[in-house]
Amino acid sequence: MFNLANKITMFRILLVPFVVVLLYFPSKTTCLLAFLLFSLASISDLIDGFVARREGMVTSFGKFLDPLADKLLISSVLIMLVELGWAPAWVVITIICRELIVTGLRAMASDEGIVIAADKYGKMKTVMQMLALSPMIIHYPLFGYDVAVVGEILLYIALILTVFSGGNYLVGFYRNWLQQDSKK
Fold it and tell me: Of 112, 109, 123, 124, nearest to 171 (Cα)?
């Protein structure tokens, strides 16, 4: 349960409060530090998956913990960006609602013995969200460029991917449910 891959995932979860506290006191310095910690957490998402697969450390606990860590990191930052007035609330609500719906569907499917694995669109969605949030966390102009605008554009792209991948999960869940129902 506490293998290297899962420890890396837990490390990602432990970074969340630090990112939130730094964003709670926004300045060029705290936002840059929050960005660095967020980037470290985001990179750890790639590393824990790589380590788990390469070293044969894929566990049920890891399959539960990894997406939870992603949701905690991304949702916390999104909520802080709304609090700061740096992200539209309706976009954040849509993204978080999608995460809750997919998590609920996975729980229901699991009760029926159906595994709804993360697909390529879900993974693309997570990467795009992380890419969008990075410049939004920095917020302040960097080397004369308004990086927040880039983040906002990427956030809308992430929103489209989020809704699309959520719809894809719904379709997959429905198809699996029909197959299970026809077997009974």
Answer: 109
Predicted pLDDT of residue 184: 64
Full DSSP string of the chain? ---HHHHHHHHHHHHHHHHHHHHHS-SHHHHHHHHHHHHHHHHHHHHHHHHHHHTT---HHHHHHHHHHHHHHHHHHHHHHHHTTSS-HHHHHHHHHHHHHHHHHHHHHHHTT------HHHHHHHHHHHHHHHHHHH-S-BTTB-HHHHHHHHHHHHHHHHHHHHHHHHHHHHHHHHHHHHH-
Query: From CA 109, how far away is CA 65, in angstroms rounded?
Result: 18
Whether the pTM exceeds 0.70: the reply is yes
Question: Tokens for 120?
Answer: 């390529």
Please give the Cα distance from 15 to 34 (Å, whole number).
10
Please tell me the predicted confidence (pLDDT) of residue 109: 79
73 pLDDT above the threshold of 70: yes
Distance of alpha carbon 180 from alpha carbon 133, whole angstroms: 39
Strand partners for 124: none
Tokens 């070293």 identify what position?
55
- Residues 38, 133 contacting (CB under 8 angstroms): yes
